[in-house]
Amino acid sequence: MSVSKRTLLLLQILVAVVALGIWHIGSSVPILGVYFLPKFFFSTPWDVAARIVKLFSGTLIWKHLGITLTETLLAFVIGAGGGVLIGFWFARRPLINAVFDPYVKMANALPRVVLAPIFMLWLGLGIWSKVALGVTLVFFIVFFNVYQGVKEVSQAVLSNARMLGMTEQQLFRHVYWPSALSWMFSSLHTSVGFALVGAVVGEYLGSAAGLGYMIHEAEGVFDTTGVFAGMVILAAFVLVVDAIVTAIEHRLLVWRPDAAGRNV
Amino acid sequence: MPPDIAISLEQIDIIYRAQAYAGGGVRDGGPARAGDYHAVSQATLAVKEGEFVSIVGPTGCGKSTLLNAAAGLLQPANGGVSIYGDLLSGLNARAGYLFQQDALMPWKTALENVAIGLEVAGVDPAIARDRAEHWLAQVGLQGFGLRYPHQLSGGQRKRVGLAQVLIRNPDILLMDEPFGPLDAQTRQIMGNLLLSLWAQERKAVLFVTHDLEEAIALSDRVVIMSSGPKATIIGDYRIDLARPRDAMDVRLDAGFHAIHKAIWDQLRGEVMKAYQGVSP
Lengths: 264, 280
Ligand SMILES: Nc1ncnc2c1ncn2[C@@H]1O[C@H](COP(=O)(O)OP(=O)(O)OP(=O)(O)O)[C@@H](O)[C@H]1O
Ligand SMILES: [Mg+2]
Prior knowledge:
A: mainly alpha, 81% helix, B: 6-stranded mixed beta sheet, binds magnesium ion
């Protein structure tokens, strides 16, 4: 495939224009006397855009964004930190791993949404119940990846490092740690995404602030325009966070063939 | 066991266990059980201090397995490994091992990979880097220090591996097809480099290669392994060609052809056996 960056961008923009066009026509132009996308259920692109502009001319939106961002970051940091520690511990202690294995699998299989009410009961309606929900999502992703990273260090690399005279501590620093880290970073997009999901779902289910709360509020009064505006802002927020993660990944994983050589 | 014998494998048996036992790996002794693979049987080989010995044999016969035993990475089920007269238990700290597989740390640059052996031994990092630059230049990779392994060719990675091993100045060199992916020309340059280093430092070298000519050109002795399972050393040829040698010119020597023919006559039979697949 040899499509230049510019052509690609144009094609991507075209997709958006077509989608918005369909939305606009469906909601504002009657075809054979029928609106295919009735305003009440779908709002219109112009209304949504106007609402977004209005929201951002106020200050409240920044508070909501700030709350959601804080929850996301806390969930990620706590979940990832725990995942790294426990992942390492389990990988280096086969007995511990064998004993806890069924419980880890059980906990991971549990749909996290059912935990949300319990966390609210325990931690209240503030940010910590949302952070807790995010942590339960992030922890397992990072845990499994770090565990895998430690386990899957190439035998040849490990033997070589030993033959080069490394002590256990040096092996940890020069072999296990970088390997585990690379696995963790390869799941960075997923885990940051899940931290955000935890925050928004938590807010949605019960809170007084945040993007999830905003969307829930609008839904409560059948304010479709508000719901769509919230969704667009959320999507933009995700894109920004994802771009930051990509930048971090590129810096930290220069040695990886896929990370270094990646270009569209 | 006289201490001037650098490596001595004494009637070693190596069995790959089908099931890992408590304690793991192939550490335990005892006879082979169902499903186990009895790779090496009753292999005896001594490498003197300052001697250059090559192992040739059909693919899959157990050459790497023997090197792993000499490195202390595998424990023989029977027999023992002695290093300078001391029975080896644990890793062989006096040996440098150039692995057959890619064994560079992918998250370190070529320079960092070479320097690490000194750094972990407590050498000042700045000095270690200087030495590493020197060794990269020695293997013909000046200016490649900042590349990561995936940015190097297979042959370049091998040479970084060689520098990584040599920088630590080990008494024993275990080399598993170090020049495998190199072109004929570079092979000879590297062969000569190895010969000159070896002449200066009197290292004991145990060298695995598929290239019989290379084995003869470099070595004091060439040993032949039989095809597996239960592979063992079945031939031991002294190479009495004059030193110092040039890895290329020596091949034109009249004596070279005679010895090549003698070894090949025996080796060919083993290669055919391995190829026809005597079932394990
Ligand atoms: N971990 C293992 N478990 C079971 N069998 C093994 C294991 N490692 C090697 N073997 C077997 O032992 C035999 C010897 O292997 P080895 O790697 O020593 O061969 P080699 O002579 O180095 O071959 P090559 O020239 O292709 O590198 C082979 O038949 C191989 O299948
Ligand atoms: Mg091999």
